[in-house]
Design brief:
It is a single chain. With 237 residues, the chain is α/β, with parallel strands linked by helices. The protein is built from seven helices and seven strands. It has one domain: Rossmann fold (3-Layer(aba) Sandwich), CATH 3.40.50.720. The chain has a seven-stranded mixed sheet, with helices on both faces. Helix 4 links the parallel strand 2 and strand 3.
């Protein structure tokens, strides 16, 4: 963009990297407290093509942690409210907005081979497992997945690793159990953002509380994995 909106990013990353980001295609599944901030970070960094997937509408309880959730947008479709915000950041961004749930019934509508990266920020264990399995089938698509950000307070406990090395995370534990019941954990490795923090009173049997400085940190970490991976690939050509 000639207006200079990405000038500071280009000073840091260079023109070739900015061109690569402008051509990048990223699909983000789940636009809550993690996914919405991941998307915003990608757009503010110059990523030019995104698919946004979420079935929900903004509700009052989203306002404390989701990028597009304000008192004005309560009741709006999440994906559309986020798309409106993103176009205010970069009017030229190419967005494919999908108000739907990724599940067995809708999975055939998504061709992962069209994307360089898939971001999994889904909460449902069943849907998350399906997305991970299907995204890993596409050999040229890189998957990054968020584990549980709810009931986490300390952003300094957030880290990233291969799924097999995730420890002390309830969502990862539930995923492993579900994978083992349905054919085993995928052989192809994928990187996760996670935290081993456990807070007293935490329960996965009821809706967990969450706070923006942690959920957003998960989202920013996912965006960082994408941008760092693009840079690594350019340097290693």
């Amino acid at each position: 963009m000639s207006e200079g909106y990405f000038d500071r990013a280009e000073r840091m990353l260079g023109g070739e990297m900015m061109n690569a980001l402008a051509g990048l295609r990223v699909a983000v599944f789940g636009l809550g407290g993690v996914g919405s901030w991941c998307v915003e970070s990608l757009v503010r960094s110059g990523v030019g093509h995104l698919m946004l997937v979420d079935s929900d509408a903004v509700c009052a309880s989203n306002v404390n942690r989701q990028a597009m959730a304000t008192t004005r947008t309560v009741g709006s479709v999440k994906a559309e409210a986020l798309a409106e915000r993103l176009r205010e950041i970069n009017p030229d961004v190419d967005l494919d907005v999908r108000q739907c749930r990724y599940c067995a019934e809708s999975a055939a509508e998504f061709d992962f081979s069209r994307f360089d990266y898939v971001i999994d920020a889904i909460d449902s264990v069943e849907d998350k497992m399906l997305l991970i399995r299907n995204a890993l089938v596409s050999p040229n698509t890189t998957l990054f997945s968020s584990m549980g950000a709810a009931f986490k307070m300390d952003p300094f406990r957030i880290r990233h690793s291969a799924f097999r090395k995730v420890e002390g995370d309830g969502l990862a534990r539930a995923l492993r159990q579900r994978f083992k019941k349905s054919g085993g954990i995928p052989e192809r490795q994928f990187e996760c953002v996670w935290s081993d923090e456990r807070r007293e009173g935490q329960s996965f049997e009821r809706p967990c509380g969450s706070i923006v400085h942690t959920t957003a940190s998960f989202g920013f970490a996912l965006a960082s994995l994408v941008i760092s991976d693009v840079e690594r690939k350019l340097l290693n050509r």
